[in-house]
Amino acid sequence: MSLTNRVIKRVIDIFGSLIGLIVISPVLIVICIAIKLSSKGPMFFRQERLGEGGQVFKIIKFRTMIDNAESIGSGIKTFVNDPRITKIDSLLRKYSLDELPQLFNVLGGSMSIVGPRPPVPYHPRKYSEYSTKQVKRFDVKPGITGYAQIKGRNALNWDERIEYDIEYVENQSIIMDIKIIVLTIIKVFKKEGIHS
Q1: How far apart are CA 153 and CA 189, in angstroms?
Q2: In 10 A of CB 68, how many CB atoms?
Q3: I need a surface site. Which of 10, 50, 156, 184 has the fewest CB within 10 A?
Q4: What is the pLDDT of residue 75?
Q5: pLDDT of 193 above 60
Q6: Is residue 121 domain-resident?
Q7: Which range is least confidently modeled, 30-39, 58-67, 78-87, 108-117?
Q8: What is the number of structural domains in the chain?
Q9: Which domain holds residue 78?
Q10: What is the per-residue pLDDT across 30-61, written as a single tens digit (0 to 9) for each?
Q11: What are the pLDDT digits (tens) for 93-110?
Q12: How far apart are CA 160 and CA 53, in angstroms?
């Protein structure tokens, strides 16, 4: 992607996330209240992720599982009828509403609206363990949604996701980003590929 397109993408990210946060602020407030009423623990879930250039940052999401769920059962993996997911949180996950706070990450510059989804630093592998080809997925900022999400989301294994991420990095454009956003909305409403 050219420097001009990178600047345009960042401008879109700033205005898109800012306007998005303002428009959905009533929804965010309702979700915060629902989370507090449905289960004990914080409203938000912060987790270390690998971003552009392999830099670690803290991603922000609505908490969709019981507190400290990562150290219980299957860890970071989820499945249908996972007992660690509470009733209200299951609804958030079904429609990807738990991802909305990542607009703060986009506004702050650690993420983009569209880009490869950021993995945790230790899964599927450490940054230093990605191959020369695979590490290309970190040449751009991670996104709230990405090419792999419209191609299968969590139904894909990590190697498949990484292949789509590389394809995105090598062919990215503003038009491609717009297509991914539109197709993501369709996927969310169809509830496809929610669980790994």
Answers
A1: 13
A2: 9
A3: 10
A4: 64
A5: no
A6: yes
A7: 78-87
A8: 1
A9: 3-190
A10: 999 999 888 888 999 899 999 999 999 999 99
A11: 788 899 999 999 999 999
A12: 20
Contact 161, 117 (CB under 8 A): yes
What mean pLDDT, rounded, does the chain reach? 89
> Amino acid letter at 196?
S
Q: Is the separation of the CB atoms in 94 and 120 below 8 Å?
A: no
Q: Which two tokens stand for residue 31?
A: 């979700």
pLDDT of amino acid 133: 97
Q: Which residues contact 162 (CB under 8 A, 6 or more apart)?
A: 130, 134, 137, 148
What are residue 49's DSSP bridge partners? 57
Greater pLDDT, 194 or 112: 112
What is the pTM (predicted TM-score) of this model?
A: 0.87
Which amino acid belongs to residue 31?
Answer: I
Bond into 124 cis (ω within 30): yes
Alpha-carbon torsion, ordered 165, 168, 174, 177, to 10 deg: -50
Q: Is the dihedral of CA 171, 177, 179, 181 positive or negative?
A: positive
In a domain, 195, yes or no: no
- Cα separation values, 182 from 26, 176, 187, 194, Å: 23, 10, 9, 17
Q: Tell which phi-psi region holds residue 75, choosing left (phi > 0), alpha (psi between -120 and 50) or beta.
A: left
At 185, list the tokens.
């909305």
The three-state secondary structure class of 75 is coil
d(CA 55, CA 1): 20
